[in-house]
Automatic annotation (TrEMBL):
The UniProt record lists the keyword Transferase: yes
Protein name: Probable transaldolase
Pfam families, alphabetized: TAL_FSA
Catalytic activity: D-sedoheptulose 7-phosphate + D-glyceraldehyde 3-phosphate = D-erythrose 4-phosphate + beta-D-fructose 6-phosphate
Protein species of origin: Pelagovum pacificum
């Protein structure tokens, strides 16, 4: 499973990138607002750092506007994936932009039918939002499994990009189901390293080591 980082915070991306943990980046209007940065400036910095796809989201509501914004965003760098919402207009924009050869990430997906339409429209990535479904007491992971099954049934090549990831558990569950990509906030990727037994074990080893009075260096 590829790891995308769901943030527009350049320092956090840089740290994870140095560890080889960044296969791509996703941003959205909320994350750009949170960064306090200019969209083109910060997206360019991210694209200069990361070789993989960097999703930058359009904000127009009509297909023509999305296509226009997509073309503008694409000027930032070759590795831009144009992000459009899963609306009828978004699907139209997706078809045009992918026909032109651009990578398109169709976002705000909450049903298997929406994912099926995005694949038919040629989406490069489909972004089902797990956490926001869980918030409504609907099993977000079940949606990932349904999309996996449907895409595999018919050989769709659209990549399933599990989004709205809120916990380390979401990451392993998405990987078990076979999501192609998961995009997670930096804190979730860090949390994947944690285990209470690791902390406990390390503590015991260090206490025993201290008793030996030895030093390694
Ligand atoms: O990738 C989409 C993501 O940014 C949404 O996450 O936590 O705002 O639902 P969240």
């Amino acid at each position: 499973m590829k790891f995308f980082v769901d943030t527009a915070e350049i320092d956090a991306i840089r740290e994870l990138h140095a560890l080889g943990m960044v296969d791509g980046v996703t941003t959205n209007p909320s994350l750009i607002a949170k960064s306090g940065r200019d969209i083109k400036e910060v997206t360019k910095e991210i694209c200069d750092l990361v070789d993989g796809p960097v999703s930058a989201e359009t904000v127009a509501l009509d297909a023509e506007g999305m296509i226009k914004e997509g073309h503008e965003l694409k000027k930032i760098a070759d590795n831009i994936a144009i992000k459009v919402p899963l609306t009828w207009e978004g699907l139209k924009a997706c078809k045009t932009l992918t026909d032109e050869g651009h990578m398109v990430n169709v976002t705000l997906c909450f049903s298997a039918n929406q994912a099926l339409l995005a694949a038919k429209a040629g989406a490069t990535f489909i972004s089902p939002f797990i956490g926001r479904l869980d918030d409504l007491n609907i099993d977000g992971m079940e949606l990932i499994a349904d999309i996996r099954e449907i895409y595999d049934n018919y050989g769709f090549t659209t990549q399933i990009l599990a989004a709205s990831i809120r916990s380390a558990n979401h990451m392993s569950e998405a990987a078990k189901i076979g999501a192609d990509v998961a995009t997670a906030p930096p804190a979730v990727i860090h949390a994947m390293a944690n285990h209470v037994l690791t902390d406990k074990g390390l503590d015991a080893f260090l206490k025993d080591w201290e008793k030996t009075g030895q030093k390694i260096v």
